Amino acid sequence: MSQANWIIFLHVAAVWLSVITSQVAGWTLSVHPYLSLALGVMMWALGFLFNLRLIASSRSGAATHATAHARRSYQRIAARTIMNLGIGIAFRSWLTLLVAGMLIPFYASAARQRRNYLDYLRTGMLSDAFPHRVRRHQ
Question: Where do the domains of the chain lie?
């Protein structure tokens, strides 16, 4: 499994297993089901459309500096988190809301690895060429 696919697998498995676990165990929010479904679907759609807009803007105009790359990464993390929270609200799942928060560090780690890889593609140099920019793993 490639580096990009592990975060997708983790995301899908964690969110849907938390939904299933919450429904089976009865760990649900005390909100009317129709209200939570409507709010959850709207929230998920908002995150999905925000994510699509970010993807389209990244394709049309390339970021010229590291700050723009980082900002786009964090905006994508926010969009995915909004989508996860929407799923949690739609299914009235406490556990899914917690999992949505716990996935944020994994998203940040994947974004950091992607930025390092894109930096390597852009510069053509290994990350060890700039030791002050790379954290050392013992």
Answer: 3-129
